[in-house]
Structures are given as structure tokens and as C-alpha cells.
Amino acid sequence: MFYHAYDSYLKYAYPYDELRPLTCDGYDTWGSYSLSLVDAIDTLATLGNNTEFARVYTLIQNLDIERDINVSVFETNIRVIGGLLSAHLLAKRMNVPVNATWPCTGPLLDLAVALANKILPAFDTATGIPYGTVNLVWGVPVDETNITCTAGGGTFLIEFGTLSRLTGDPVYERVALRALKSLWSKRSAINLIGNHINIQTGAWTANDCTIGSGVDSYFEYLVKGAILLRQPDLMDMMSVYIKAIDKHLSDGSGWFVFANYEQGRKTMPLFASLDAFYPGLLTLVGELDRARETLYAYHTMWRKFGSMPEFYNLVQQDCMQGREAYPLRPEHIESIMYLYKATKDDTLLFMAADIFDAIESCCKTSCGYTSLKNVKDHQLDNRMESFFLAETIKYLYLIFDEENFLHSNGEYATEHYTSSGSCFLETSFVYNTEAHPIDIGALDCCTSSFIKEKTSTKVDENTLTKEQMRWLRDSLLNEELNGAIKKNFSTLTCSALAYEQRFSIYGEILT
Ligand code: DMJ
């Protein structure tokens, strides 16, 4: 499956962002980054393809990011910066020559930093929640909207935390945390949040709370940020949200619907395909029975359609009109992977096989795999989003490759020697929301080198900014917490809908 999709992209679409699998050509979608290549490079590592990984590793170092083009801050972060960071961290395992200061330096890390610097101006808002778009040359466009979705504001900590911990520059982690915490501060008295927010005033402009579309990866990054950066307070926040979600969004039988964030009144009886990441999140926080209940409910949807519609009305028992598509999304398979990893329940393998078979028989074309326009008649669309290579296939593969290095849960490690001592890599990975794995050990490796370097030169307050000193102290504290937090959590997802489309679905738009 992977090579049919990937080779077709290379043959028909590269250097465009995406493949069109019906017309067998390519086009740019998210910023002319050759996006599918950047999104797919770590899937090559997952499959153990050293030669192709090395070829792509060299190729993407030349990505031109000095272009007068408007790009999505969210998508650039999760797909491009996430992909670059992951490839950077996997380079040594894939036998790409790295220098003595790797993983704290490297060409793809430099590129990720340069790209992050291009989107940093987006965070300069009254709330700290970023704008949705930047121009790679000019910064935030003058006419850029002040409205962003919750996920668009709160899905940066994995990538930006990684940048800070690898480079020693706290600015990235700081802005990402500020945005996350700013969203937290806007929760209602019943601990729910809205769907879209004004980033200058902090007022919610779409009042429906959901676990999925427009919100999903905000929740995901609280959990994964807590794990990756050892910040228990983020996990505490998610615990509060989980209770409120259970109370107000749950229908009591595994499904979650939309509810008004202030009163908790249920507003729309809709399932959205992005909801399907949630059993994975419940697995990560140790709620296995509840994860299973919801995942089984969602699998009935898969069995009904041989795919999942973008939106389904649980009362009418039908797809929402105009939202019947299946764009090859990964969320359901992602949750299956987490739950299987945690339980080894064979039933989940059969579910994964269902998904593989359906995609193989319904979505395969002579030049790739294509989205379904309508899950009811399996009419084909002409799009293979890059996340099919980055996520859907990776998670599917990982379910059936139980010995894969990415499954490491601390029982395996490789020792890495640096000028400040040795550290351990590949003990455990956290996936960003685009399924790009981040090696937790690499962050510790660079953080401790940075700390040793700074402390051995007897840093006085004058050589570091206050912010750097605070960050250093926090990092040292986190090092201590390192041993204390033993839970093995690990994954998961922002929707790729245009804002206008979202506005048309969510009932309550305030301006
Ligand atoms: C991906 O880009 C990411 O998983 C994101 O968080 C949600 N949308 C797609 C997959 O559905």
C-alpha cells in the first residue's frame, strides 16, 4: 500500500504537494513544500527503507522557504516542521551521517527552526493564541482574520517544545505554552471550551464544544505535551476537560456530540470523523475500558460504510448532507493502534484488517489511493492528502509490526555519546498530530547538554535572560520529575476544513 501510494506520488506528482490519483498528476495545496515528501519521510524510516530515507533527507534540505506565499500556520507546523523534526531525529538510526553535536544540531533542525521563525510572528496577539496564516516573507497578512479554531491555536507544543529543547532557545516552547494556557483560561464555568475564538479579545465566536472538528488536537497536545515535556499540569488540565466532556458531550453509549460550552446543552447530535482520535487519547491517559467502548461504537460506522463520513447525524442515522466524504483520514486506525498496543486484544487486529481491506478495495486507483466523495456510493474524489502517507499507512503498518522500534516503551534504548556525556535514545516516542514520531530521549539529551554547558561555565544572571534562567530551572525540575512520571502514554489530530466550511456546520457563530 505504502509503495503504491508513495511511488505514484513521486512518479506523477512530485514536486507538487499532493497527488491527484484519478488524473494521475500533482498540485499544490498547503504551500508548495513538496508536502507529501516531507510528510512521508519518517514513514520510510518506519518501514526501514534506509536508502530512500537518505535520498529524501538530502533532497528536502533544499526546500525553499523564502517565498512570498501565504501558508497555514497550523498545517505548516504539524506537517512540515513536524516532518522535518522527525526526520532529523531519525537520521542516525537510518545511517545518515550526522555531526558530533547531533541531535542538538543538524540541517533539517536548522530548516525547522528557520520555518518556525517564519511563523513566530503569528503568536504576537493579545491572547498569545496565534493567527491562522502567515506569509513566509512578510509575516501576518494585514487583512488576516482574528478568528481561529481552538485546534489552530493549541497545536504547537510538541513541535515547538522539541525545537526549544533541542536548540536551547526557550522562545518556541514559551509561545506554544502561552497559547495552550490562554485557551485553558477561556474555559467556561463548566469546563468546556468553544470551537472558534477571537485571538485578540479572547471571546469565543463559535460556541459548540466537541471532542473533534476544530478542537481535537488541542486536547491531544495537552496530553502529549505533558508526556513529552513532563509537565503534569497539562495532564491535570486534560483530566478536568475529560470529566466535563463525559458529563456534557457523552451520549452514554460511547458517542460524543456537540454541546454549548457555557450551559452544556447538547446542540448537535453529530459524529465527526475527527472524533475518532479520542479513543487513542483515552488510551494514553489509561482509560482503556472507555476507549474500547467508544472505539467499538466508531467501528460500527466503519462497518456500515467501509469508511467514515466526515459528519454523521446520530439521530437521523444518516450522513450529514454535503459531508459524506472520506478523505483517507487516519484517526480511527490511529486509535486502534494505541488500544492494541495497550491491550494486545486480537479483535483490534481484525478491525485494522477491515480498514486495510476497505481502503485497498474502495480507494485504490492505477496511480495511488483516492478519497471518497461519498461513503454511501463510494464515488471517488481526486485527492490523496499527504496525511495518508504520514499517518494512515504508518499507523496501519505499526499495528501489524509489533517489533517496530517506534513501539519502544523504555525496554529498549540506544546509548548516544555527546561531549557532555552519554544519553539514551529511542526509549520512547511521542507522535505529533500528523504521526511524526519525536524521540523523547533526544530532547533530554540536548536539554542536559545545554544545562551542563550552562552550569559548568558558572552562568551568572547577566549572561542569560530572565526567561532563559526560568526555562533552565523548569528544565532541571522536569529532569527530576523524569523518574517520577512513569505512565506510558503515547498519540493523535486539526481538521483540514476551510473556515467558511466550518462556519457553515457549526450552528452558533457570533461575530
Ligand atoms: C491531519 O492533518 C492531522 O491528523 C490533523 O490533526 C487532523 N487532520 C488530518 C487528518 O485527518
TrEMBL record:
Predominant subcellular localization, coarse grouping: endoplasmic reticulum
Binding of Ca(2+), residues: T433
Matches recorded under SUPFAM superfamilies: Seven-hairpin glycosidases (SSF48225)
GO MF term set: calcium ion binding; mannosyl-oligosaccharide 1,2-alpha-mannosidase activity
EC number, as in UniProt: 3.2.1.-
Record has Hydrolase as a keyword: yes
Broad EC category: hydrolase
Coiled-coil stretches: none
Any single GO CC term annotated in Swiss-Prot or TrEMBL for this entry: endoplasmic reticulum quality control compartment
Protein name: alpha-1,2-Mannosidase
